[in-house]
Design goal:
Blueprint (H helix, E strand, L loop, with lengths): L5 E5 L2 E3 L7 E4 L2 E4 L7 E3 L1 H16 L4 E8 L1 H11 L6 E6 L8 H13 L9 E6 L10 H8 L5 E10 L5 E7 L3 E7 L4 E5 L11 H16 L2 E2 L29 H13 L1
Parallel strand pairs: 1-6, 1-8, 6-7, 7-13, 8-12, 9-12
Antiparallel strand pairs: 2-5, 3-4, 9-10, 10-11
Helix pairs in contact: 2-5, 3-4
Length: about 270
């Protein structure tokens, strides 16, 4: 493998899933209660994309990874203190909202503009990675629109594995309906991959990697470009937690088939 890739990973921050999230309607529209107080993490879908990108650079000498992230600057700094210890990357920060109530098209436009502004970007070596969906809002459309704005038509969603041949061609394992996979082939970069879970474990914390990353992370956060997402034409009728329904019934001396039939009938209702 002789190609040195430029790998852009798009990923934002989300509230820690172990926290209780309560939607509220504020003056600016829907939001989460005490959102700025909630501990945050890098979106798990984007995390897989970042780990896969870092793994690819090990096998393609000279390659480089950028993490383009849109979120509140204070929260980004908090999350980067941990993420920076995982894998080497250069941060491109955008200071703006990262909630699940943002419009995917506006987020895609901001990310695409930030990617296009990266100095020395060579589209013949460009691979854009991101989460297939998101833990904050599973729109499943943001990465596709990022690719369209960058003029990348070779796009693959639900990716679990990427192999690069000696000639630079890409072999991609994509999820499809019915719990199956399909193998797709691409002549080479540029390409966009929306990652599912991949097959790599989470890297261990490496303080030395963290120290190197923080030399560029902190300046990137200081000069983070403010991004205002207007949400024009977007409205929410209401925001609320899913309602819980529990119906308990204790029955003795029934066969498994009878219980199963009763459950099926209950579901049909």
């Amino acid at each position: 493998m002789s190609i040195a890739y430029q790998i852009i990973v798009c990923g934002s921050i989300v509230p820690d899933p172990l926290q209780t999230l309560e939607p509220v309607t504020g003056p600016a529209g829907p939001a989460l209660k005490n959102e700025m107080m909630l501990p945050a993490i890098l979106d798990p879908w984007a995390s897989h994309a970042l780990y896969e990108a870092a793994n690819l650079t090990k096998n393609a000498p000279g390659s480089k990874v950028w993490l383009v992230s849109l979120g509140p600057k204070a929260k980004l700094q908090q999350v980067m203190m941990t993420v920076a210890q995982k894998v080497p990357f250069e941060l491109v920060a955008l200071d703006g909202p990262a909630s699940g109530f943002t419009e995917a098209a506006e987020v895609a436009a901001a990310l695409a503009d930030a990617i296009s502004a990266i100095p020395g970007l060579d589209k013949s070596k460009l691979l854009v990675f991101g989460g297939w969906e998101s833990a904050s809002r599973g729109a499943g459309a943001t990465m596709q629109m990022v690719g369209e704005r960058l003029g990348i038509t070779d796009q693959f969603q639900g990716v679990d594995e990427l192999k690069i041949a000696a000639d630079g061609s890409l072999e991609i394992l994509e999820r499809i309906e019915g719990g199956k996979h399909q193998v797709s082939k691409c002549a080479g970069a540029p390409a966009l991959l929306g990652w599912a879970t991949g097959n790599l474990p989470e890297p261990k914390n490496n303080p030395q990697v963290g120290m190197v990353n923080m030399r560029t992370v902190m300046p990137a956060l200081q000069k983070a470009k403010p991004v205002k997402l207007a949400g024009e034409g977007l409205s929410f009728a209401s925001v609320s937690l899913p309602k819980q329904l529990r119906e308990t019934k204790i029955v003795k001396d029934k066969s498994a088939d009878e219980i199963a039939n009763e459950i099926v009938e209950w579901i049909k209702k």
